[in-house]
């Protein structure tokens, strides 16, 4: 049969060993109130519903004094002792309201004090962490505004931290002052000196760009292959590297090289050899030959003095001609030994892009 557990009120079989909800013993441990019929535990003294007394104990029975009666015939009559149950009244303790209120207030105050102390501790701990992070960031910064911001925000920071930041700030101000001085002079030497004194400065990139520009101006002013090559050697990733390379190749093409000197010397050597030997097939103009060959000259030899001055000039797209200046000695054998037998000429000539002498001037040097 299903019953309600007298302890928790959940439905349970009266044959169950225990209540599955509260775990109290059920089988053999329950009964019903003789007054109201409600299920209750056997050990209970009264029904929790109608408060009917169910179980009595010896301590609950109070004896009634024996009534003695003596009859007319002298017999003594005694009345029976009827046990009377005296319900035990619970003793109510008087509550000390004032004491309880004071204790609660004290406990609440202590708890509040602990919470405030804990909050203050965590607040100060967080403040110290924030200050340390700001201090480390400021030390690693190269911007004076960052350092000054730390000093303004953390006026109560540890003195050693503030001293370090102040020293770092002064160092940065000195770096900025040196940079301003280097920019005012604007010389390569001062810029290089600045970078040497302050290798970690944020201005070094700007200094390198300024030096790059100064070296480019110098190369343009000199306008020689050597000057452009010096710029390229010093600035492999310079802003003007491509321009310098193009200028170098253009000037280098105009530079008189060993093969140019050899070609020009052989060309004029052949000309004067033909002139001396009167080789009309080699000479395109017989004007010089007729002028210098006199009737009494039996032998003539020309010897260049190797003082060539050759200027290579671009006369077309990738085509070059030469302007030549040199001296040459003339030795002669003559029938009349009293006449001149040796002289020196200053020669100026031009060579076309086709490799032919297109202009020639000879002027005798007076000894």
Q: Mean of residue pLDDT?
A: 82
* First-to-last CA distance: 158 Å
User: What is the β-strand count?
Assistant: 13
Task: Please give the CATH architecture of the largest domain.
Answer: Roll
In one word, what is the shape?
Answer: rod-shaped
Can you tell me the CATH class of the largest domain? Alpha Beta
Global Rg: 65 Å
CATH level-3 fold name of the largest domain? Nuclear Transport Factor 2, Chain: A
Residues in helix, %: 40-55%
Class per helix and strand makeup: alpha+beta
Q: What amount of the residues lies in strands?
A: 15-25%
Total of DSSP H or I helical runs spanning 4+ residues: 9
Domains, number: 4
In brief:
The protein is an alpha+beta fold. Helix content is 44%, strand content 20%. The chain contains 9 helices and 13 strands.
């Amino acid at each position: 049969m299903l019953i309600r557990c007298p302890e928790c009120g959940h439905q349970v079989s009266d044959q169950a060993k225990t209540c599955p909800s509260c775990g109290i013993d059920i089988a053999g441990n329950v009964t019903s109130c003789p007054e109201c019929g409600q299920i209750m535990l056997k050990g209970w003294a009264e029904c929790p519903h109608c408060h009917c007394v169910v179980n009595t104990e010896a301590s609950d029975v109070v004896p009634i004094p024996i009534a003695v009666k003596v009859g007319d015939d002298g017999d003594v009559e005694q009345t029976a002792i009827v046990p009377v149950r005296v319900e035990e009244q619970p003793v109510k303790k008087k509550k000390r309201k004032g004491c309880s209120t004071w204790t609660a207030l004290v406990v609440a105050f202590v708890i509040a004090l602990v919470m405030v102390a804990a909050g203050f501790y965590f607040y100060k701990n967080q403040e110290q962490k924030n200050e340390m992070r700001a201090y480390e960031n400021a030390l690693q910064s190269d911007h004076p505004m960052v350092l000054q911001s730390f000093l303004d925000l953390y006026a109560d920071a540890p003195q050693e931290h503030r001293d370090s930041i102040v020293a770092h700030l002064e160092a940065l101000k000195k770096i900025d002052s040196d940079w301003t001085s280097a920019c005012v002079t604007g010389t390569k030497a001062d810029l290089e000196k600045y970078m040497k004194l302050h290798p970690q400065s944020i201005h070094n990139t700007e200094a390198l760009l300024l030096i790059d520009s100064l070296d480019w101006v110098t190369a343009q002013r000199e306008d020689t292959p050597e000057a452009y090559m010096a710029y390229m050697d010093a600035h492999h990733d310079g802003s003007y590297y491509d321009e310098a390379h193009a200028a170098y190749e253009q000037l280098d093409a105009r530079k008189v090289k060993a093969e140019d000197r050899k070609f020009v010397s052989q060309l004029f050597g052949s000309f004067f050899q033909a002139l001396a030997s009167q080789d009309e097939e080699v000479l395109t103009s017989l004007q010089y030959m007729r002028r210098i060959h006199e009737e009494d000259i039996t032998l003539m030899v020309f010897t260049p003095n190797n003082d060539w001055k050759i200027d290579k000039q671009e006369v077309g797209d990738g085509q070059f001609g030469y302007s030549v200046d040199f001296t040459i000695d003339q030795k002669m054998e003559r029938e009349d030994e009293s006449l001149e037998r040796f002289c020196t000429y200053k020669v100026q000539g031009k060579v076309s892009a086709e490799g032919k002498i297109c202009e020639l001037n000879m002027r005798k040097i007076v000894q």
